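Good morning C.,

I know you're traveling, so I'll keep this short. The sequence:
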Amino acid sequence: MNEIQLGVIESKFADIIWENEPISSSALVRLCEERLTWKKSTTFTVLRRLCEKGLFKNEKGVVSSLISKQDFYSLQSERFVEETFDGSLPAFIAAFTARKKLTKEEILLLRNMIDEYKEEQ
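The tokens, ready to paste straight into the viewer:
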């Protein structure tokens, strides 16, 4: 996947598609009018841009994703850690927890994720 970057508004638009896909383009226009106060032309312009980026497709008036929301944000997170922390997940976690303390639930969840990863090895 090419490096796809989304602005705040494009992210909101993408979320609408991911939450409702497959969705007819006319239903997408209505949702964007309600949630983003967009005109039809704006919806189709942004949709065309995101289709050109390889994130979505619009075939016969039905819009669906080429990349799932989870895969998209996983790739974005990987790229962020790679570019900002030289690929070091521990360095990212250290920076993250320097200002925000983890809850007991978050710590347990992270431990479980690590344990599951160990089992897969």
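Safe travels,
E.
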